[in-house]
Write a structure and sequence with these properties.
By secondary structure, the protein is an alpha/beta fold. Helices cover 24% and strands 21% of the residues. The chain has 16 helices and 27 strands. The strands form seven sheets. A six-stranded parallel sheet has the order 6-5-4-15-12-11. Strands 16, 18, 19, 23, 24 and 25 form a six-stranded antiparallel sheet that branches. The longest helix is centred in the middle third of the chain and has 26 residues, at 227-252.
Length: 647
Amino acid sequence: MIGLVLTLLAGPSLVADTRYHLVKEGGKDWLRGPSGKFFSFGVCCVEPGPSAKDYRADNTSYASFRYYTSPKDWAKDTTQRLTSWHFNTIGAWSGYKELLEAKQPGLVCTPILHIGSSAGAPWVDMWDRKTTDLMDKVAAGQIDALKGQRDRIVGYFSDNEQGWWNGALFDWAWKSAGHRKLVLRVLKAKYPTWQKLLKDFEPVGASSLQGLSAKGRLYLRPGGSGIQSIHTYVGKLADRYYSLCRGIIKKHDPGALYLGDRFISNFYPEVAAQAGRYCDVVSTNLNADWNDGTFTPFYLPGLHRIAKKPLMITEYYMSAKENRSGNKNDSSGFPVVVTQRERAGGFAKQTQTLLDIPYVVGAHWFQYNDEPQNGRGDGENYNFGLVDTSNRPYEELIDAEKALNFSRTGKPAMKETKAVPRRPNELGGLCLTQSSGDPRGDAFATWRPDMLNLTLYWYEDRFNEALYKSGKVPAIDEPEADVLISIGGKRFRGVCRFEGGVMKMLAERHPEGASGPDPSPLPSSPGEGKGSRRLKIAGWGCLSATDATLSPTVPPSERGTISGTDPSALPLSPGEGRDSRKAHPLQALRSGYYLVKGVRNTGTFILSASEALHRELKSGERAQFDITLKTRARAYTMHWKGDYVLK
């Protein structure tokens, strides 16, 4: 086993003028170098830390001068440690010069250049010669500094976590001549007249397309479809950015791979498609969605399907309250568990998952050492390290790493449809297969004899409020879910809007024989035949706050003014809490509420078997789901439709 691990993880040896490329063998993508194929198993932030002069005794941090007599001794010991722990790649933000000069066999590196961010791209005018010259200068200096070590350089990242936010980028579109010209080209291709444009946009400071070329700007018109033109514009910005970065990298190091710009654990389809055109490998940082190390199933398959290139995971991590560096792990929303044993388990689960995905060619742990006790410069204060701030390895994590299956012979762990962990007394659970639309989220269903739970989990864009003249997203453009569940010969349907952490019904329940407004004017479910809701159905209903049959609710702490079924009376999941990271989503989310955590959003619906079917759910019966979810600003749409057996 040891020999196999070293063969598959060992980085290419020191062979002059030999570079790296991508191959597919046995149905899996690999990097290939002079020593053969390999999976880039790396570590970020392998650096010596502050000097004795800059060290702060009131904020204990990792500092090599405290443990080594010279930078050379630090580099030699650190590189030997990394290879003994089966790592073969020195990731971003590392002391490449010192580490490579240690000449430890089996280690390569993947430097980050900050080509765009140093020059302001994609925010500033990328058609301005001053911008492109600065991008070139930034890359040239760093690439030339490592010229003597090129045989150890797999490729370069152009940037880290570029802000591909639609709202912010559209706001900046009006601040430079190049970007204004681009957005106007996009708009003129879509809208032949000013009057047609006004159906989707609200102008300020301009009364015609010609006038808009000189001054003024546009905002989204609530209820319109202008966001699609903004996607086209952002996609063209991405095309310009990636083409520039690829050209610059290949100009200064023709044999290097372009490894992308490390998405911020959230990709946008219009950007990912352009990254796939120019990058040899598309990279993304990956924040586990739940504390056990689980990644939501849509993310990596969706990114790969759009980019059509191998993927590299350039940051993944896990922290524990129990740590030797005094890290509080409370400055952001990263995964936190209690013990180092749990942290090691999360590390192993994440790493093995990534090793087994056929289109992933690398995974880089963030990071080598724990962050400073009281936080780094931006306040981040997490127990992310392989070693603590006193240079002592976390043996539980290292032992877990040694037990991994590096042969990559396991079955892929990330599938579009897969079984999910179940809560006590539940009959089963699954992740529904997305039938169409944008890869931006997942739909989970679980059941037990007395109820069926449906949880929607999706990613939103940031800064959508900048798209609107009012400075906030109007109610009509908040996320909406249209849900139809058919089971036991009955159908239950509802249309809900998500606003400020509350799920609001847009329709009332109309079971067969009930009086009230004709439901036919309500929006039809995708795939539902014309007039089908005039059929006599035993239990047509909506997701109503006043109907316990299929009910969205909010937890007491976020209840606001919503009326109807008391959420506190509904069954709660073990380990529940306001933080969705407590466990897997179907174990930790309180049944029936909408949670906003950064850009990650959750809405859960409950179907009470006793009230809906007047009996318990049975193993082996069938359930049909037809779900459409539109995200904020109508930016992206997801659709799940399928027939499933509850077993």
